Amino acid sequence: MSDTIIQIKNVNKWFGDFQVLKDINLEVQQKQKIVVCGPSGSGKSTLIRCINRLEEHQEGNITVDGNELTEDTKDIEKIRAEVGMVFQQFNLFPHLSILDNCTLAPIWVKKMPKKDAEELAMKQLKQVQIDDQASKFPGQLSGGQQQRCAIARALCMQPKIMLFDEPTSALDPEMIKEVLDAMVNLANAGMTMIVVTHEMGFAKEVADEVIFMDEGMIVEKNNTKDFFANPKSDRTKLFLSQIL
Amino acid sequence: MNKLNFLKPDRQNLSTFLYIGSFLFFIAVFDVFLTSFFKTNITSFLPNILSFLLPLILGTIGLHLIRIEFSGIPKLDLINKNINTNHFNAILTLLIIFTIIKSTPPILSWFIIDANISGDTKEACTGSGACWTYIKIWLRRFVYGMYPNDLQWRINISFILLIALAFVGYFATEKLKKFLTLYYVVIYPIIAFILIYYLISGGSFGLMWVETGAWGGLSLTFIVSFFCLIFCFPLGMFLALGRRSTLPTLRYVSVGFIEFWRGVPLITVLFMSSVMFPMFLPEDFFMDKLVRVIIAISLFEAAYVAEVIRGGLQALPRGQYDAAKSLGMGYWKMHIFVILPQALKLVIPGIANTFLALVKDTPLIFVVGLLELVGMLNLAKTNPKWLGFAMEGYVFAAIIFWIICYAMSRYSQNLELKYKTER
Question: Chain B 328-347, CB below 8 Å of chain A: which residues?
Fold first, then answer.
């Protein structure tokens, strides 16, 4: 299929003796929004970290935008530039201003002229409503602002896919909304997104599909409506009853 | 007026306590002052031990009396909070004050009052203090070593030029700022080498050749420290990265290099560089002694710098690597723009430490016959005309080294402040 952008086939991964991913199969279409949920230690983060090869899988195939990720993928940097990622701990570069955080990769990885990069960065920062903080340093911003800056930074690379690794888990309840709003806007703009989160409200609002993982396996994969209305497996029901 | 409780000074009788306490404290200090400056003991009528301890006792009582909580007088509160919090601290304070007072007269008399600086022979030194004449006469040798007197302008000019070129960074415009790193890391050392090679060493352009064996004194200290600092830093950085590399060969080579150089004493390294190293070279290959020494010290210190920088690299959270990678940065871009700026900032104190040690290790090059400042001192003190002035020489060297090292230390503190960011 031409508009399949990520294809994960029979992927297995071990940390030492411990198997974190067990026979994962997943296909993501362009512009699809997928929410991954599940208890801690279920392998959700590992799965999405495998998609831009921050973790290496040991068995199976992962294909991103037509390129298979293998040990001798020479231009892994090129694939990563196409895949934006937002982390739980923001991971902004503390020694650079907000604007420099956003322009660093476009200038040095995409070889964009500095002026264009700054223009783009300001546009993205405006989208997440922190353009007035551009000259500050990450340490001077609140958690919610930092996370929005991280989203803007990832978007400055103009990626085809965005991965979110529990973007709101390290935030105060009050700040969660501002970050989720930014993500909803992004989803409405038609970005392909894979989001690991426990925010079920967000899942209901934007997700096309919800995946429930437990013990390294995909327990349930369903469209959003059915996932919440009539989940197939008992494990999902138990999980939902505990967090909703 | 209510009854005074001398065991517990309070605010009610503030002025009484303050006057009595200050008076006792003043008496104590004055007694020590008289004893040390004028050799008069006003308490000589007391038994020996009591006379000796009296200032301490009086001072302690005095400080006890002025230890009034929330006195309302800002200066008094400041004193009480910082140097007079309890009896133990009060006694420590007094001991420090007494030590300073007691040691002032002998130091003053040796350095200034009984010292000589006039004349130009040993016989001019008649006082019991320091003989600065010795330093004055030998100053040229201490600064320039055996470098011919009439050619010393060459050293002066190259040093002035180098210092001037080091300040280029202050005048760089915004547009040229991005080339500054390149300038300082690559171009500046090359200019420095060319200057030193053609101007100080000479041999071309009609300048007389001066062999490196004749170089010496403080100027040699600067030359050796300068080049070693410049070379050992990048080398140490690459070794640190190599040690953390995922490529096994690179990692083991780095580990081997670091552990080898950290495991041998500098003095043996220097000795080998001059005695053993030429044996492995082809007959007609010649490498100057000074160059060999600089290479040896650089390699030696690079191992230390590497471990310091590795500490900084390990202190960075893994998220920084993840974030840089996820933005599509490769190994070098990630390290140049994200990892190293943060890691190097963390290790400024450690690097400064290593560099200070390096500067103070330079006297060891005497083992290969190069005489920098301390080497020249050792030479001068054995001169039959000037025997017996080792003390002046070493004090002089200590002061010079202290100035150099203190300047470096201040500079590193400035750097720390400049690059301080909140996490």
Answer: 328-330, 333, 337-338, 341-342, 345
